[in-house]
Amino acid sequence: MYKPGKSVRPIVSAIGSPTYNLSKLSSLTISKISNCKKEEGEILVSFDVCSLFPSVPIPQTLDYHRELLELNGLDDKIIKEYIRLTSICMNQNCFQYNGEYFQQHEGTAMGNSLSPFIANLFKSKFETEVKDKFEYFPRVWFRYVDDIFAVFDTKAISLDNFVAKLNNRFPTIKFTYEVEHNEQLPFLDVLVIRNSENKLEFD
């Protein structure tokens, strides 16, 4: 069992599939590296989006995709065709298991090369809206796909209340979190350590 309540999680290779080249053409990977210093009264927190790929709301994300293309000044005819092709990639997620064929009806397929872009697009828009609408948002918020490192000010709002507000945004998008212990916080494959000067080191 991969996660509690999820006995099966289909992860298939889309290489060679009818939509592989189209999906690959549309993919974009952006990596950001930043340094920060923890201020007095702040704590280190890592957030995780539960099963992000299968939980991404495709209709809303296609709308976000259309907005992004419009901002780049593309012709409306090109945008409509691009969205149509993207929709095909997202809605033709079929796989074979034990001699039977299945189709994934919700979220993005893990193995489709377009899925990371779609998931990242959704999360980017999600974060932008949250920053605009929430009275408080952490000043440090670094995300890698569905894993987030943040510096959280507990004087502004309780952590539980903040997470509850995040979890109320979309029915399928749920966050969990872990706080630092003994001035240390595991994040991805490194251990983030807060030193005596409140600066962050990595082990």
UniProtKB/TrEMBL annotation:
Where does the Reverse transcriptase domain start and stop, copy by copy?
Answer: 1-203
Where would one find coiled-coil regions in this protein? none
Domain of life, per UniProt, equals Eukaryota
User: Which GO BP annotation is one of this protein's?
Assistant: DNA biosynthetic process
Name of the protein = Reverse transcriptase domain-containing protein
Q: Which organism is it from?
A: Aromia moschata
What is this organism's lineage? Eukaryota, Metazoa, Ecdysozoa, Arthropoda, Hexapoda
